[in-house]
Amino acid sequence: MAEATTQQVRIERMAYGPEAVGRLESGKTVFVAGAVPGDLVEVAVDRKAERYCNGHVSKVLEASPDRVVPECPYAAVCGGCPWAQISYDAQARHKRDGVVSALARIGRMGEERAEALVAPLVSPSAPWGYRNKVELAVVESGGRLSLGMHAADGSGVVAVKACKLLDKGHQGVVKSVAGALSYMANSHHLDLERVGVRVSTRTREVEVALWDRPGGFPRAAVAKVLADACKPTSVTRVMQKGPAKARKIAGQERLAGRGSWGEVVGAERMRVSAPSFFQVNTKGAEKLVELVMEGLDPQEDEEAMDLYCGAGTFTLPLARRAGFVSAVESYGPAVRDLRRNLDEARLDNVDPIGGDAGLEFPDTDADVIVVDPPRAGLAEQVVSQLSDQPARAIAYVSCDPATLARDLARFEEKGTFEPASVTPVDLFPQTFHVETVTILKRRAGR
Ligand SMILES: C[S@@+](CC[C@H](N)C(=O)[O-])C[C@H]1O[C@@H](n2cnc3c(N)ncnc32)[C@H](O)[C@@H]1O
Questions:
Q1: Residue 371 Cα, ligand 1 centroid: separation in angstroms?
Q2: How far is the CA of 36 from the centre of ligand 1 (A)?
Q3: Which of ligand 1's atoms lies nearest the C-alpha of 285?
Q4: Is 72 a catalytic residue?
Q5: How many A from CA of 246 to the centre of ligand 1?
Q6: Which residues participate directly in catalysis (predicted)?
Q7: 3-class DSSP state for residue 151?
Q8: How many Å apart are CA 112 and CA 104, to the nearest integer?
Q9: Is the ipTM of this complex over 0.95?
Q10: What is the position in ligand 1's atom list of the atom closest to the CA of 379?
């Protein structure tokens, strides 16, 4: 049956994505942008696929009790806060439900076991003003450069006066950096692909990272205009190669200041270079470290392993407590950051290994292990290698409930480790993303 272009839909739940889910008159699933579970809305259908449709709210007919007016005036047009129309309590409920559902279905645990395993969601930060990083999109049209936030409908950039997700003292930096660079582009050729800004209330450091391709670049003029706009402590240029998404870099140049960004996480001071991963929510990162340390309780006479370790968020606190740490990271800039952070912390009981976690899996017997892979989760080979370890516990930090659930099912098949707890942590309020810390314990007799 052909779907009408506008239909009344009762919204049932949130997807693990920006949209809410309901059913069209035909029974077909529709993913609706801007909706809240419990709403009765008029949906404008934008896209029809064989088994589902996508649409957006054209009118709210009956508002859900969980619907709120977003705190940010750009929420409807900017892609940064797709859940901003949902009250924070309801966001927290839907995130936990999403984790339970992934474990029950993809992890093949069943609803009852998943419900018992998943702890209440932990919210380490305020629901707004929690980010230490923002990434500005850049669009060139008719010889003019526009910088701003990615538009929710993918149609370019949204110019904003401030980003309410960014740390309170720095929300206006988006406008000053965007304004300064678009002004400069009137007189200089700037072939920017994106601009990253990292800020810290704790260290007062602000870094602007300009992502482009190798070639000529008005270094001094850019450094000067940014110094006037936002007094950064570091300005760097990151030259990419290959597809922009792959984030492979041909080189990095320090244009002004320190050439990296500093943050304090718990008791540790860390420096991170622009291309390296660092959690965007510092209080959230601290909560992850706390949950991992509580779950593993590393001892002085024990050996630890930290796979996908980045610049060392877990490596440093592990090295303070365990006798020795083998830390593996595949991305060159992050390995260099890790080495520098270990040097500055005067920690010499870590073996920093550059390479793929599976190929360079440490040739050692660990007592406790941390894994914190990207969204793709663990390679099947890594689950096997971990299952062959004599460790008493593994902390699995995940940013994707679906791949976590898949990997827990693989651990179950191997039979050595079983999950003792899964704690969802909200590092990304106003979005669908949810982080989890799973503690796996060695099964009795294994
Ligand atoms: C989610 S981040 C976690 C980083 C770090 N644990 C932290 O909290 O800051 C995942 C890290 O894994 C690294 N990575 C991605 N694929 C990898 C692989 N196959 N082997 C080792 N590291 C990898 C990425 O470069 C990134 O630094």
A1: 9
A2: 34
A3: 8
A4: no
A5: 14
A6: 399
A7: strand
A8: 8
A9: yes
A10: 19
Collapsing DSSP to helix, strand or coil, 243 comes out as coil
Question: Under CATH, domain 6-67 is a member of which superfamily?
Answer: Nucleic acid-binding proteins (2.40.50.140)
Question: Ligand 1: does its nearest atom lie under 6 Å from the Cβ of 360?
Answer: no
Q: Is 370 in the pocket of ligand 1 (CB under 6 A)?
A: no
Residue 211, ligand 1, Cβ within 6 A: no
Q: Which residues contact 396 (CB under 8 A, 6 or more apart)?
A: 371, 372, 378, 404, 407, 408, 436, 437, 438, 439, 440
Residue 56: Cβ within 10 Å count: 18
Reported as a single tens digit per residue, the pLDDT across 260-319 is: 999 999 999 999 999 999 999 999 999 999 999 999 999 999 999 999 999 999 999 999
Under DSSP, the state recorded for 274 is: T
Per residue in 372-429, pLDDT (tens digit) is 999 999 999 999 999 999 999 999 999 999 999 999 999 999 999 999 999 999 999 9
What is the fold, at CATH topology level, of the domain defined by 133-264? OB fold (Dihydrolipoamide Acetyltransferase, E2P) (2.40.50)
| Amino acid identity for residue 310 in this structure | G
Query: What residue owns the CA closest to ligand 1's atom 11?
Result: 308
Kindly tell me the burial class for residue 271, based on how many C-beta atoms sit within 10 Å of its own C-beta (0-12, 13-18, 19 or more).
buried
Query: What is the CA(234)–ligand 1 centre distance, in A?
Result: 24
The domain limits of the chain are 6-67, 133-264
Binding-site residue ranges for S-adenosyl-L-methionine: 279, 308, 329, 372
CB neighbour burial string for 278-302, b if at least 16 within 10 angstroms, e if fewer = bbbbbebbbbbbbbbbebbebeeeb
Cβ pair 40, 113 in contact under 8 A: no
